[in-house]
């Protein structure tokens, strides 16, 4: 049988990492990435890129933990290599603070991040409105450099990149044997997934190089995440809002909330305001399907719906999607050897 032709649709953090895992696991495949938008114009470019998971209600905790662990281990190795600055991956320490002690004191990811502990009374004095806090070190991706770094690695492996809007996955059946759907919120239209909905997020990128520690309010709504070239201030979570236009009153509100957590931000210079739509659903859709029409077949693997946690989980879900691609390749080989009998 000829080398299987595989297309990954989507060039956000999920599509590019999935393409990398497929290229590594199945180097004989002819692999292409097709996307309407590449960096710096994807939702993944807007993200803060922090590795702090959010719990997805429809996925067992042990599975989410495994995805996070694989992602953390992978990025930790990059942060500890000569590639770190080009890939935009670095360690960052800081605090998650709460106005009252949370019901669940130990989140499921507490033994994966580094040095997780309860904050001391002395540390809590920095946050007079908060009663309880957790200190830890985690990883952060500077998103556009990380996406570019993945693109560069894919091109070096001979993977083709095409700017193309796909109207229906079936339109790819004459060119590819296997299609991997990593379209993020685009999957709502692309495969008509009504369980997928946007959670709009607005963030500010500011210049404040003196801010070295992250601060996250335990409700997850207000956060200060220092990166390599800017500090991300957030945020909002607006369910079912499709608007990509920044709202000036929201910008003011985010800035005020962040200044009350870190007063030195009053002196920060605003660089840009960005909006992105988190591709949300009760669970990530990681699934294999066979589509057929009039005797023709297309093998489809879905990997989308990462909501607020695309960066935190991407490597784990990409590996699982690559395994599903492996099952598709085995099915193709099986049907080709049967046809020869
Ligand atoms: P996307 O980045 O949206 O990529 C989808 C790709 O599919 C794009 O290339 C698009 O052009 C392509 N596409 C879509 N439809 C089609 C089509 N029909 N044809 C061809 N191509 C198509 N997560 C974290 O883990 N940590 C954080 O700190 C964090 N902060 C965030 C802050 C904000 C404000 C927002 C909005 C999100 C944040 N997230 C964070 C979540 C994270 O951004 C997402 O989970 C992640 O970006 C989803 O990646 P994706 O590759 O699935 O989607």
TrEMBL record:
Residues of the signal peptide: 1-19
Give the GO molecular function terms: D-aspartate oxidase activity; FAD binding
The source's domain of life comes to: Eukaryota
Keywords recorded for this protein, A-Z: FAD, Flavoprotein, Oxidoreductase, Peroxisome, Signal
Residue sites binding FAD per the record: 43-44, 166
Cofactor(s) for this protein? FAD
One GO biological-process annotation of the entry reads: L-aspartate catabolic process
Q: Which reaction does it catalyse?
A: D-glutamate + O2 + H2O = 2-oxoglutarate + H2O2 + NH4(+); D-aspartate + O2 + H2O = oxaloacetate + H2O2 + NH4(+)
Q: Which residues are noted in the entry as D-dopa-binding?
A: 223, 278
For the FAD dependent oxidoreductase domain, which residue ranges apply? 5-324
Question: Does the keyword Ribosomal protein belong to this entry?
Answer: no
Keyword flag Signal: yes
Q: Which InterPro entries match?
A: D-amino_acid_oxidase_CS (IPR006181), DAO (IPR023209), FAD-dep_OxRdtase (IPR006076)
Question: Coiled-coil stretches, from where to where?
Answer: none
Name its cellular compartments.
Peroxisome matrix
One GO CC annotation: peroxisomal matrix
User: Which EC number(s) does UniProt give?
Assistant: 1.4.3.1
In the record, the note on similarity to other proteins reads: Belongs to the DAMOX/DASOX family.
What the entry lists under PANTHER family is as follows: D-AMINO ACID OXIDASE (PTHR11530), D-ASPARTATE OXIDASE (PTHR11530:SF11)
Q: What does this protein do?
A: Selectively catalyzes the oxidative deamination of acidic amino acids. Suppresses the level of D-aspartate in the brain, an amino acid that can act as an agonist for glutamate receptors. Protects the organism from the toxicity of D-amino acids. May also function in the intestine.
Write the protein's name: D-aspartate oxidase
The protein's organism comes out as Nothocercus julius
Question: Which classification does the entry list for the species?
Answer: Eukaryota, Metazoa, Chordata, Craniata, Vertebrata
């Amino acid at each position: 049988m000829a080398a299987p032709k595989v297309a990954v649709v989507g060039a956000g953090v999920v599509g590019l990492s999935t393409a990398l895992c497929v290229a590594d696991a199945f180097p004989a495949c002819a692999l292409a990435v097709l996307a309407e938008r590449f960096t710096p114009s994807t939702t993944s470019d807007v993200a803060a890129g922090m590795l702090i998971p959010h719990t997805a209600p429809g996925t067992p905790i042990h599975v989410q933990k495994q995805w996070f662990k694989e992602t953390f281990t992978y990025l930790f190795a990059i942060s500890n290599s000569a590639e770190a600055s080009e890939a935009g991956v670095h360690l960052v320490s800081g605090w998650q603070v709460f106005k009252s002690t949370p019901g669940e004191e130990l989140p499921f990811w507490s033994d994966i991040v580094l040095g997780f502990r309860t904050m001391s009374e002395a540390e809590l004095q920095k946050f007079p409105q908060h009663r309880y806090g957790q200190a830890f070190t985690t990883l952060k991706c500077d998103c556009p450099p990380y996406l570019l770094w993945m693109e560069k690695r894919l091109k070096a492996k001979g993977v083709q990149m095409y700017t193309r809007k796909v109207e229906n996955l079936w339109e790819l059946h004459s060119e590819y044997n296997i299609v991997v759907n990593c379209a993020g919120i685009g999957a709502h239209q692309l495969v008509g997934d009504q369980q997928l909905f946007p959670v709009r997020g607005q963030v500010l990128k500011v210049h404040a190089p003196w801010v070295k520690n992250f601060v996250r309010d335990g409700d997850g709504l207000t956060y200060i995440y220092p990166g390599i070239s800017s500090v991300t201030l957030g945020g909002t979570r607006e369910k079912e809002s499709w608007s990509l236009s920044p709202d000036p009153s929201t910008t003011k509100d985010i800035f005020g909330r962040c200044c009350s957590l870190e007063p030195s931000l009053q002196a920060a210079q605003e660089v840009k305001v960005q909006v992105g739509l988190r591709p949300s659903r009760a669970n990530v859709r990681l699934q294999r399907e066979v589509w057929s029409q009039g005797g023709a077949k297309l093998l489809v693997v879905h990997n989308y719906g990462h909501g607020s946690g695309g960066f935190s989980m991407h490597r784990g879900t990409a590996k699982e999607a690559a395994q599903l691609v492996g099952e598709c390749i085995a099915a193709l080989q099986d049907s080709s050897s049967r046809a020869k009998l």
